[in-house]
């Protein structure tokens, strides 16, 4: 079996495992992941440059819920954005989050929620969904 076929099978396997998680399990695991980011990783990142712009994602399909990180960023006046798909197979736009940002389903992927519009920014750090990683911690 070639590498592309192996990767496809592994993605299907891990998507099925993620889909089988209960909502309480997703919430519990999301809390641990977000707490780890906020308490351990974020201080190391932010210490190096106070002008960091972050990008989050809005979760779907049992992905890690990043709302705790969003709330932390809002409470601490930290700039962040959400991605917006402008065309298939093209670079994403990153829309600066503001209190009045409105969200809608993507015209390309109906289960993906994204900002309707807003100021485009270039994030320094992307927080992205992860399905699985290997023994070398490669996505």
N- and C-termini, Cα separation? 20 Å
- The backbone outline, from C-alpha atoms, is globular
Report on the biggest sheet.
Answer: 4 strands, mixed
Oligomer: single chain
Structural class: alpha/beta
What level of helicity do the residues show?
25-40%
Listing every helix as H and every strand as E from the N terminus to the C terminus, the arrangement reads HHEHEEEEE
Count the strands? 6
Strand order of the largest sheet: 3-2-1-6
As a percent range, the share of strand residues is: 5-15%
Sequence stretches where pLDDT stays below 50 over 5 or more residues: none
Account of the protein in words:
It is a single chain. The protein is α/β, with parallel strands linked by helices and 139 residues long. 37% of the residues lie in helices and 14% in strands. The chain contains three helices and six strands; from the N terminus they run ααβαβββββ. It has helices spanning 3-19, 23-48, 67-75, and strands at residues 54-55, 80-84, 93-96, 103-105, 113-115, 125-126. It has a four-stranded mixed beta sheet, with no helix packed on it. A two-stranded antiparallel sheet has the order 4-5. It starts with a helix and ends in a 13-residue tail after the last strand.
